[in-house]
Amino acid sequence: MALAMGAWRRLGSLQHVATPVILLLLGSACAQDYEPTWDSLDSRPLPAWFDEAKFGIFIHWGLFSVPSFGSEWFWWYWQKQHMSCYVRFMKANYRPGFTYEDFGPLFTAEFFDANQWADIFEASGAKYMVLTSKHHEGFTLWNSKYSWNWNSVDVGPKRDIVAELAKAIRSKTSLRFGLYHSLFEWFNPLFLSDESNLFKTRMFSFTKSLPELYELVTKYQPEIVWSDGDGDAPDVYWNSTGFLAWLYNESPVRDTVVTNDRWGQDCICKHGGYYTCADRYNPGHLLNHKWENCMTIDKKSWGYRRNAKIEDYLTIEELIEQLVETVSCGGNLLLNIGPTREGLIIPLFEERLRQIGSWLDVNGEAIYSTVPWKAQNDTATPGVWYTSKPDDNIVYAIFLKWPPAGCISLDQPYAYVGKTKVHLLGYRASLKWIALGKQGMMVSLPQLNGAQLPCQWAWVLKLSRVF
């Protein structure tokens, strides 16, 4: 009770704090399982489903999708940094005095079909998805009580985007539903006031950001809470440990929810559920903590860009390579797309997602529910990455280029004549192989061009009983 009264006294110094937030924060202070400290919260085991999933879809959608120029940071680059290309774009295409708020009614979403999105995500082979419920601009894609007249129900589409997509994902797919939420907002006066006070005051965090988080979890029950945008404020300002203690102990998703590591300045790659460390993070080696590679099909932006060129998009070969390397090193791949202001997933994004799905239809057993092997890649043959299922004594060697010689050398496996068996996923017959000294093997591949096999872009050898 001393903790609860202490929390009350601290909150009492803030005027106009929303009562539900006070009650929830007090509940966090009285939590039975996880205390609101990083030592306690970081001890929570990550729910197993997340590591087994391996692949998810990220969706960046908001008012930045209206100008769809340059980046989802359009407002910041235009109004804060006054970057010349953004200033010129606005002068050339919009009336004098046009404000960022004026984009609200133009965010129409008339072609947004949550069921169609769900079908595409299911076809991609992804096991979870994360929607930007609110980016740094502050515009929410649900009817938030804490974002009056700056949300998708009051302005623009006049629809609860979060609710529609949650319903479609849960009714039509097997994907887990997740939500991204930006802690800070670039131009919110309350945040700017707290920032000017060196975050000694917490009006924005306690009356805007935290209430939104509690609202999202209680109303939509996401199984991923993807936090971002700390605004250079410490986790104490955001009361991150208090929120996470409630999330893990008392929330409706307490047993299955996973969180990332973006909960305040200096938290990234140190605290939270799994690590993201940086955008497009791919260390290329095994980490001792579960991590995620969040990246984009568009090399330059998370939001949709009308001015993107074809060379700005990653090819399917590059995307499969990212997936394979990430999983081999113990990570998950969260692959981002940016819908248009009308709510369309452009054909190129859809094609890439469906291509990944077709590859996973053949080779998914080398991705889903695997764990890193003793070696992540092969030194004899570049472009070979390993995953494993140790309970079944199976190792998968995933190679990104079809060798013109018709055989492939692997120097990592210990193979045994009469025991080790080799198959190429998507090809029925077993393959012949020979040992290369005490360690290593050479596998003879089918006398076909790789493109003639059931799936292209990368191929998987299934090695049974190797060490």
Automatic annotation (TrEMBL):
- What organism is this sequence from? Geotrypetes seraphini
Family statement drawn from the similarity comment of this UniProt entry:
Belongs to the glycosyl hydrolase 29 family.
Q: Which residues form the Alpha-L-fucosidase C-terminal domain?
A: 376-463
Subunit (UniProt): Homotetramer.
For this chain, one GO molecular function annotation is: alpha-L-fucosidase activity
| TM stretches of this protein | none
Catalytic activity field = an alpha-L-fucoside + H2O = L-fucose + an alcohol; a neolactoside IV(2)-alpha-Fuc-nLc4Cer(d18:0) + H2O = a neolactoside nLc4Cer(d18:0) + L-fucose; a neolactoside IV(2)-alpha-Fuc-nLc4Cer(d18:1(4E)) + H2O = a neolactoside nLc4Cer(d18:1(4E)) + L-fucose
Q: Which UniProt keywords apply?
A: Glycoprotein, Glycosidase, Hydrolase, Signal
Protein name according to UniProt? Alpha-L-fucosidase
Report the enzyme's class at the first EC level.
hydrolase
Q: State the signal peptide span.
A: 1-31
Q: Look up keyword Glycoprotein and say if it applies.
A: yes
Q: Which GO terms describe its cellular component?
A: lysosome
What range(s) does the Glycoside hydrolase family 29 N-terminal domain occupy? 31-365
Q: What is its EC number?
A: 3.2.1.51
